[in-house]
Amino acid sequence: MVSELQIVALVEQVEHKIGLLKDAYNDAKRRIEQLELENSSLRESVKEQQSLVKQLQKKQGNSEKDVPKSKDFSKIVKDNLSETDTNAELKQQLDEYIRDLERCIAHLSSLS
Question: Where are stretches of biased composition, namely Basic and acidic residues (predicted)?
Fold first, then answer.
């Protein structure tokens, strides 16, 4: 037969295990709450990043529309040249156009 002391000891062991399970449950519950808050924060951050990407894509699209096509550059150069321009002046203008192109490229690169 099982003595009364053995039954009391078993009940105390069960109560102790129940206490441990309650603590583990409460810890897990707190961790879930923390993770839900972090998840919410991260979702908000993702939305902000997606919005920023869309804005940058729009700016990039608008910038690309503003840049004339390469065949238009020859027209620009041709229209801006007078017949009295010297080679030095032509070289200076071309250098200026190249610097403008480099600035445009740098600007477009910074958008992406």
Answer: 61-74
